[in-house]
C-alpha cells in the first residue's frame, strides 16, 4: 500500500473529521484520481514528437497514456479534425497515491525557483490543477536523453464539496501552497 494512503487512513482522515466536524467517515474529502495531460501541438511539425511525449508520460505515470484527437478543425493552429493533439492518463489507486507522493516530496523540491503553488488554481469543486514547465524534474526522466523540454499539467481530483475542504485535505499532506495571510 502507498505511504501517503496509509498516512491518510491512519492520521489525516481522523484529523479532518475532528477539525471540520464531519459526522460520517464518508464525508471526509479524499483523492479520487489524478489526470495528467500533455499537449502535442509540436507533432504537427515534428513527426517523432508524439512518440517522445507518449514515452515521457509512460515513464512519469507508470502506465501508457491515451492519445487525444482533435474534435474539430482550427485553421489558426493548423489543426484538422482527427489529428493527434495531446496525450492524457488517469491515475487511480496505488499509482495515484505514489504519483502524489512523488510530486510533493521529489518534483516540487527539485523545481528551479519554486516559491509555492497559488491557491487560486482550485476549480470551485475542490479539485486542484498544476502545470509543470520542465519534465526533467521527474526522477524517471534522464535529462541527457530528451530532445526537447516539454511541459505537462495534472489535476488532482478530490471528492471535496468546495475549495476550502479541498485545500484543507491537500494542506494535511504538506502540499506546498504559497504562504499568503489574505487567503484561506
TrEMBL record:
<dbReference type="Pfam" id="PF00673">
    <property type="entry name" value="Ribosomal_L5_C"/>
</dbReference>
<dbReference type="GO" id="GO:0005840">
    <property type="term" value="C:ribosome"/>
</dbReference>
<keyword id="KW-0687">Ribonucleoprotein</keyword>
<keyword id="KW-0689">Ribosomal protein</keyword>
<dbReference type="InterPro" id="IPR031310">
    <property type="entry name" value="Ribosomal_uL5_N"/>
</dbReference>
<comment type="subunit">
    <text>Part of the 50S ribosomal subunit; part of the 5S rRNA/L5/L18/L25 subcomplex. Contacts the 5S rRNA and the P site tRNA. Forms a bridge to the 30S subunit in the 70S ribosome.</text>
</comment>
<dbReference type="GO" id="GO:0000049">
    <property type="term" value="F:tRNA binding"/>
</dbReference>
<dbReference type="GO" id="GO:0019843">
    <property type="term" value="F:rRNA binding"/>
</dbReference>
<dbReference type="InterPro" id="IPR022803">
    <property type="entry name" value="Ribosomal_uL5_dom_sf"/>
</dbReference>
<dbReference type="GO" id="GO:0006412">
    <property type="term" value="P:translation"/>
</dbReference>
<dbReference type="InterPro" id="IPR031309">
    <property type="entry name" value="Ribosomal_uL5_C"/>
</dbReference>
<feature type="domain" description="Large ribosomal subunit protein uL5 C-terminal">
    <location>
        <begin position="85"/>
        <end position="177"/>
    </location>
</feature>
<comment type="function">
    <text>This is 1 of the proteins that bind and probably mediate the attachment of the 5S RNA into the large ribosomal subunit, where it forms part of the central protuberance. In the 70S ribosome it contacts protein S13 of the 30S subunit (bridge B1b), connecting the 2 subunits; this bridge is implicated in subunit movement. Contacts the P site tRNA; the 5S rRNA and some of its associated proteins might help stabilize positioning of ribosome-bound tRNAs.</text>
</comment>
<keyword id="KW-0694">RNA-binding</keyword>
<comment type="similarity">
    <text>Belongs to the universal ribosomal protein uL5 family.</text>
</comment>
<keyword id="KW-0699">rRNA-binding</keyword>
<dbReference type="InterPro" id="IPR020930">
    <property type="entry name" value="Ribosomal_uL5_bac-type"/>
</dbReference>
<feature type="domain" description="Large ribosomal subunit protein uL5 N-terminal">
    <location>
        <begin position="24"/>
        <end position="80"/>
    </location>
</feature>
<keyword id="KW-0820">tRNA-binding</keyword>
<dbReference type="GO" id="GO:0003735">
    <property type="term" value="F:structural constituent of ribosome"/>
</dbReference>
<dbReference type="Pfam" id="PF00281">
    <property type="entry name" value="Ribosomal_L5"/>
</dbReference>
<dbReference type="GO" id="GO:1990904">
    <property type="term" value="C:ribonucleoprotein complex"/>
</dbReference>
<dbReference type="InterPro" id="IPR002132">
    <property type="entry name" value="Ribosomal_uL5"/>
</dbReference>
<protein>
    <recommendedName>
        <fullName>Large ribosomal subunit protein uL5</fullName>
    </recommendedName>
</protein>
